[in-house]
Amino acid sequence: MRFQFHSRFRLAFPLLKFAILAGGFAISAWSAAQTPEIEEVTARGQLTYNWQQHPAYPAAYSGPNSIIPGREKMYTLTSTAFLGLRPWLGGELYFNPEAAQGVPFSTNLVGLGGFTNGEITRAAGTNPVIYRQRLFVRQTWNNGGGSVAVEPDLNQLADVVDKNRFVLTVGKFSILDIFDPNTYAKDPRTQFMNWGNWTYAAYDYAADARGFGWGFAAEWYKDDWVLRFGRMSGPKEPNGLAVDLALGKHYGDQVEVEHGHMLGDQPGKVRVLAWRNRAQLAGFKDALDYLRAYPGADPQTFFKVRGSDKIKYGLGINLEQAINNGAGLFLRAMKADGRTETHAFTEVDASLSAGVSVKGSLWGRAEDTLGLSFSGNTLSDDRRRFLQAGGISFFIGDGALRYRPEAIIETYYAVNVSKALSFTADYQRIQNPAYNADRGPMNVYAMRFHAEF
Question: What distance in Å separates the CA atoms of residue 258 and residue 319, rounded to the nearest whole number?
Answer without folding.
Answer: 10
